[in-house]
Amino acid sequence: MLPSHGATLVSLQALWILPFPIDVTPLILSNNNMLKRKYLLRDPNVIELNYQAARKLGVNVYLIDGGSEFALIDIGYLDTVGDIIDLVRNLDFKLSQCKYLIATHADADHVQGLARAKELLPGATVVAHPQAAPLIEKGDVIETFARISAQDIDLEMPPCKVDQIINEGDVLEIGDIKLTVWHTPGHTEGQLSFKADNVLFSGDNIYRDGGVGVIDAHHGSHLPHFISSLERIRDDDARVLLPSHGPPFLKDKALIQKTIDRLVGYQTLPDFGTCAVHWPLLEQWERDVNAGKMPKL
């Protein structure tokens, strides 16, 4: 539900403190019943729809405004798709001009609403990585985290046809904006990021507090790949990171390095089960047992 005319305005700064200037236009209805657009960034022109709505919709949903057409990066949960499409329409975007529905990866919180979004935006092309596409198309509930029985999580996962496979080095043209596709595996093997000028839509690779997307064997997480993806982000000339969760932030190499160091340590610990590369403690124990060596206490 959109705020009515005269509703209390909530500034972006009140939600999250942003480290760079943004174009904040009040969220009010104009005389023609259209909402004023609140651009998170200019050049490239980006609207983040949680900020635009001044309420939590779920995963960050980025609208890339290319002038003559637009794209949406991730769509989120099924129950918010209607609100998101209404919001886009009330921002005076023609729904027929949505060129792409982009999946950063196949997690339920990112793509559960994709099939419904495609129904509402039939002219849009659904794009995903080749390792994410099968999960999306069959409505997988395990690798997408739609079902976590131990936590009583059981979400439907409507299957959605992926119209176009995209991968490392591909370029998506959206009006006058070009998004270069990065394959950044680790959180999932189908995780994508997208670069436009000095801005990186960084998915679930890293958040402003140094946290990362969940690491889990059922999820297909891979620690060495995750570390390589983070090193790539650290060393790139991108200045602004737009993650899939939480606030955008200016890239901080020290923060990323601290996260890398943490994940390097996880490779030799049992904290994430079979995601570990090896466990030196257990290997030494096995050698001692096989040699008949008793522990010294």
Brief overview:
With 297 residues, the protein is α/β, with parallel strands linked by helices. The chain contains 9 helices and 14 strands. Strand 10 and strand 11 (192-196) form a beta hairpin.
Features:
alpha/beta; 297 residues; elongated; 18% strand; 14 strands; 9 helices; single chain; 6-stranded mixed β-sheet; disordered N terminus
Which strand order do you get reading across the main beta sheet? 1-2-3-4-5-8
User: How would a crystallographer describe the biggest sheet?
Assistant: 6 strands, mixed
Mean pLDDT: 90
Rg over C-alpha atoms, rounded to the nearest angstrom: 21 Å
What's the number of helices? 9
Can you give the helix content as a percent range? 10-25%
The total of beta strands comes to 14
Would you identify the regions where 5 or more consecutive residues have pLDDT less than 50? Answer: 1-31
Distance between the termini: 65 Å
DSSP strand (E) fraction? Answer: 15-25%
Per the principal axes of the C-alpha atoms, what is the gross shape? Answer: elongated
Backbone structural class? alpha/beta
Order of helix and strand elements from N to C terminus: HEHEEHEHHEHEEEEEEEHEEHH
